[in-house]
Amino acid sequence: MVMLEGYVRLTQTDGQNFDIEMWRYAKDLKRVSAIPGMGHEHIPGKSGIYMGVPVTINSHGWRDKEYPLEKPSNVIRIMMLGDSLAFGWGAPPDGITSNILEDRLNAPYDHTRYEVLNTGIGNSNTAMQTAYFLHTGYQFQPDIVVLNYFINDAEPTPTRKDSFLIENLYSAVYLAGRIDIVKRMYLGHSDWKTYYQHLYQPQAPGWLATQKAIAQLAQFCQDRGIALLIAHYPELHELAPYPFENVQRLLIEQAHKHALPFVDLLPSVAGEEPSTLWVTPTDAHPNGKAGTRFAEALQQALVQNFPQYF
Predict the structure, then answer these.
(1) Does residue 241 have a cis bond before it (omega within 30 degrees)?
(2) Which pTM value belongs to this model?
(3) How far apart are CA 273 and CA 267, in angstroms?
(4) Phi, psi at residue 82, to the nearest 5°?
(5) For the chain, which residues make up each domain, given as ranges?
(6) Fewer CB near the terminus (10 Å): N or C of the chain?
(7) What is the dihedral of CA 85, 30, 69, 215, to 10 degrees?
(8) Which of 254, 235, 163 is nearest to 192 (CA)?
């Protein structure tokens, strides 16, 4: 075990091993949240280098610059709810969709300023993100909320499982990842497409919780005059033909059910070679190229649906 630990630390700590970097991120920057239903949250003020890029958590627990609780005059606030895609996993600050969107909105330099608040947390789901917003996020007085939705946001809320090996050994994390690959390849465990499809079975617990959360978020925003947009982020492994059109339709149905505008970001990257949109050759989180395309599409959707703010 000592030799294996040494081998893994020597060969797999270059910042490019997804499993190890996600483990380090969770170990260093997250804690169990006291907010009911939120699961985990970022530790304010923490920072580190993950996937080779700097990550700094502000005093509110976001990967973003500091913002006061009180919204300044002449400012339109847009709050981004989401998971690791909104967080910007593997992307430098200037490659994160929310930062690109904020820069684009402020480019005209007129009297109105825009703040795009990035509350994204890796490995969170829609139910967790909604719990945060209903408890804390709304206090920042956003004019617009964007629910940045990715296909795995219908996963059940994760629960912390204490394990000395997983908590402390790089080799345990490395082996767990290798074992998962073997199970998928040789032991009949679901491949990634089947896994995602199973999340959207009619009675899947995570999908039921997601629908409930969307309903709660929609009602909360409606009651307080907050504009709400659902943005669907594509799974970037395969774009044409896209294998999850059924999930897109389910989300559109949810948006229509609650009279919410919806934007599908898949067309913004249509025709691209998928791997050119990834943060690394083995990690399909969106890079700066994808982030720019997404920000452009989001800006267009925001202006079209909420012209009173633009």
Answers:
(1) yes
(2) 0.90
(3) 13
(4) 175, -175
(5) 2-309
(6) N
(7) 60
(8) 235
Tell me how far apart the alpha carbons of residues 137 and 129 are, in angstroms, rounded to a whole number.
9
What are the pLDDT digits (tens) for 148-181?
999 999 999 987 666 555 565 555 454 555 555 5
279, 91 contact by CB (below 8 A)? yes
Q: Which residues pair with 145 in a beta bridge?
A: 79, 228
Strand ranges in 47-189 using DSSP code E only, listed in sequence order = 47-50, 53-56, 75-81, 113-118, 144-149
How many residues are there in the chain? 310
Reading the block at residue 308, the tokens are 């009173």
- Amino acid identity of residue 37, one-letter, is G
Please spell the DSSP secondary structure of 166-211, one letter per residue: HHH-HHHHHHHHHHHHHHHHHS----HHHHHHHTTSTT-HHHHHHH
Structure tokens at 121: 């947390």
